[in-house]
Design goal:
Blueprint lengths: L1 H28 L2 E5 L11 E2 L2 H9 L3 E16 L2 E10 L6 H6 E4 L7 H4 L2 E5 H7 L6 E6 L5 E11 L4 H4 L2 E5 H7 L6 E2 L1 E6 L5 H11 L4 E5 H4 L1 H39 L1 H9 L4 H37 L6 H4 L10 H23 L7 H7 L1
Parallel strand pairs: 4-9, 6-8
Antiparallel strand pairs: 1-11, 1-12, 2-10, 3-4, 3-7, 3-11, 5-8, 7-8
Helix pairs in contact: 1-10, 1-12, 1-14, 10-12, 10-14, 11-15, 12-14
Length: 375
């Protein structure tokens, strides 16, 4: 029961961690980022003109769901006698707000219906808001280091918490047209494209497709390449889950072997009588294997109740908390995959029964004559 319950919980937690973290990073930064192909490694994108042919080809592909223009520009926010260096990420009306809407602590996302008002609005992270002592509706000044130095007044439209330290400490969200104006770009000039894929498992396939249709002046980077540390950490979680599964299965098997050996030793007289009556070794072994299967079945039932019950309880209540600075989230995430549960149940039953065939062979070592003497 404990072995299966822990295995179900382990897989649910690992899947939950991976899904939550991928959703957070993907939700803010997209799955594939297309920028100008140069040596620029700064936070301020090199500009290029929007490519209508690339845009159409990417949108037609079933691998790609969204193509969104963006640009970034570093700046310094001054508010309440505090200053903070940030990067302004400019987006337009085509931007997918679904992730940020779920991450809003207060306020709302930018509404591009009123273009003049949208240029004056910012979304800032909760980390930045706390450092600068800002709340929704407050005014602030943002300085852009360029020649000549420029400053712009903004109003805090909303405060978000992406849950990823690199994002929350670095970015604020604003209007793309403002960055174009500050950089003296033309209306059809942008800093890059953010693309979202239909299926994250096909990210490599989608990236290869984008590489094939990209103009030579542009380069595509996947989210895995942009955040290598996070995705390497997610791979280590898989290794941890595999180790836990193996250990729990070994514990379950050892417990069942011990139980079966005890049952056989306690039934030595019965085995001797059966053999004296002409019963074969295999027919007697089956009696103990059937009994072991019954015990394993009970353990599986209670293990499912324990593992699934605790998983669903955490999924609904988020009772067990985490340090968001270390784990990128404030609670233990759970993602139940019913195929995992089914395979764990079947695998546990089959492996335990197959392993128990060996200790059940102890039956063949017992003879009626020795049993009568023992009795």
């Amino acid at each position: 029961m404990l072995g299966l319950g822990v295995m179900i919980l382990s897989l649910a937690v690992v899947r939950g961690f991976k899904q939550e973290i991928k959703d957070k990073v993907r939700g803010f930064d997209g799955d594939i980022k297309v920028v100008k192909y140069d040596l620029n490694a700064s936070y301020e994108n090199s500009s290029f003109k929007e490519d209508a042919d690339f845009f159409k080809l990417a949108k037609r592909s079933p691998l790609i769901t969204q193509v969104m223009p963006f640009a970034t520009k570093p700046g310094i926010i001054k508010a309440n006698n505090e200053i903070e260096g940030v990067v302004l990420k400019g987006v337009d009306k085509t931007y997918d707000w679904s992730f940020l809407k779920k991450s809003m602590v207060s306020g709302s996302v930018i509404d591009f219906t009123d273009t003049a008002e949208a240029k004056k609005e910012l979304l800032i992270s909760e980390v930045t808001a706390n450092r600068l002592k800002l709340k929704t509706g407050d005014k602030l000044l943002m300085y852009f280091v360029q020649q000549p130095l420029r400053k712009r007044p903004f109003k805090v439209k909303g405060i978000f918490s992406a849950g990823i330290e690199d994002i929350d400490k670095t970015y604020v969200i604003g209007d793309l047209s403002l960055i174009k104006k500050l950089n003296n770009w033309n209306a059809d000039t942008i800093g890059g494209y953010e693309l979202r894929v239909a299926n994250f498992d096909e990210l490599t396939l989608a990236a290869n497709f984008i590489d094939n249709i990209l103009p030579t002046r542009l380069k595509a980077y996947t989210i895995v390449e942009n955040y290598p540390n996070i995705f390497e950490w997610l791979k280590l979680l898989d290794v941890n889950a595999q180790i836990i599964l193996v250990l729990m299965l070994i514990v379950a098997v050892i417990n069942m072997i011990s139980a079966l050996l005890i049952m056989i030793l306690e039934r030595t007289t019965m085995i001797g009588i059966f053999k004296a009556m002409g019963a074969g070794n295999w027919s007697i072994q089956k009696i103990f294997l059937y009994n072991a299967a019954y015990l394993i079945g009970l353990g599986i039932i209670f293990g499912n109740l324990f593992g699934l019950g605790l998983s669903i309880f955490q999924l609904k209540t988020h009772l067990f908390k985490l340090d968001p600075e270390s784990y990128y989230m404030s609670f233990v995430p759970i993602q139940l995959n019913w195929l995992d549960v089914i395979l764990l149940n079947i695998g546990t039953m089959l492996i335990c029964l197959l392993v128990l065939i060996i200790p059940s062979m102890l039956v063949s070592r017992i003879t009626p004559v020795k049993d009568i003497r023992f009795k």
